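SAMPLE LOG
Freezer: B-3
Tube label: C17
Construct: single chain, 188 aa
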Amino acid sequence: MGQQQARLHGEQQPRRPAAAPQHRVRQRRLRLLLRLLAHLLTGEAAAADDLAADALVALWDRWDRVRAAEHPVAYARGVVANMARSRIRAAVRERHRVALFWSRRGDPAEGPDVAAVLDVRQALGRLPFRKRACVVLRHAFDLSEKDTALALGISVGTVKSQTSKGMAELERLLGGRTSLELAGRGER
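STRUCTURE (predicted):
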């Protein structure tokens, strides 16, 4: 019996549930989170868009694993981190050319924080992948050591040591300036 006939006979058709707005908000938030993580790990905005899209496709393909994961967002972060690592390994020469291009760029800075951000990004780009990932997840994403370990598939002890070594190397690369000093909030 069609919908019109059912309405004429007083029967009610089962209603489809409306898509929950919260679900769309969570999807958008996850997409932005994955894109930001990819951008901080690769240092390239265009690559971050591609990486986040590829990660979402991979997550969709492995949806049964995502649903079964104890921490699905950490699983998603791990997918992005692994894809970023693979991309970096495959494009080592290209990355060196891009880094050389950005290091020679002499655009004037608009505000006092722009130079500091560029310095930190350049220094982050010089860190090995695991140190960079630990520093970015711990300090830019404010994840706990446990959550960082889950996202990267490493132990909490490795997160602690890699974060510590990464921060020490960043400080050395930045000439002893701390991130707070670069942001204009620290003691001088």
